Amino acid sequence: MGGISDLLLSGSNIAVVLFVVSSTLAVGLSLTVGQILAPLKNVRLVALSLAANFVLAPLAAFGLWRVFGLDEPLGIGLLLAGLAAGAPFLIKLAEFAKADMAFAVGLMVLLMVVTVGYVPLVLPIVVAGTAVNPAQIALSLVVLMLIPLAAGLVFRARAAGAAARIQPAVAKLSTISMALVIVLTIAAHFNSVTSVFGTFAILAAIIYTVICAGIGWLLGGSGSRDVLALGTAQRNAAAAFVVAGQNFDDPKVVVMITVVLIVEFVMLLPFARRLARSR
Prior knowledge:
The protein has helices spanning 2-30, 33-37, 43-67, 72-83, 89-96, 101-126, 134-158, 160-188, 190-194, 201-233, 237-247, 251-277.
């Protein structure tokens, strides 16, 4: 059984890499640098986005840890998810929601860059005895996201016609790989997730996702609330996993991050579709 689980996990990891690279490349092929940066010139929106993701979202995670009396490893896993923002999955959610893609990409990059400096600074304060190597988080950011995004932007700037022809195929690849990520992640971690039955871990993850979506919705304003709701609710599991691997031996920490990730998949995809239908 362990062999099958390992195979599914390897497949999930490969699918994640394919999804992140193809998603960011597809966005680069369809937008310009100016379009991505334009929403970030709104100082108020940027400040509210940072407050939502790096003040209110972590506070909500810490509060739910205490309210539900989660075992310490589960609580730490939830808190790590709360501290890490800027998930690449936001691009696909924004696409499904027919939302402002330029703001979605700008927000994702902003949140990921801040996460690299924020988590190493804040985690030792809230969880004694921890330390984070920011280089390991930054490495995945640069290699898997910023390089493909930059490549797409440069290619579009130099050959817009060719970029327009290639982009639909790359976007289709990102959708297929996203489906593989969801299926393989759930299958690979099924036993881990069922191990928390009888605790409040799954309920806490559900309520946490709702709270974060609500925070983003309320702070986003009429033009940006859908993207900020999705961007705040979709936490950066990859960064959280890196931090967990550096600091914690108890597998329940990783299990809780996985529970949050799967709950977000299940809840935010239909939420994005509903946003699209409501337009």
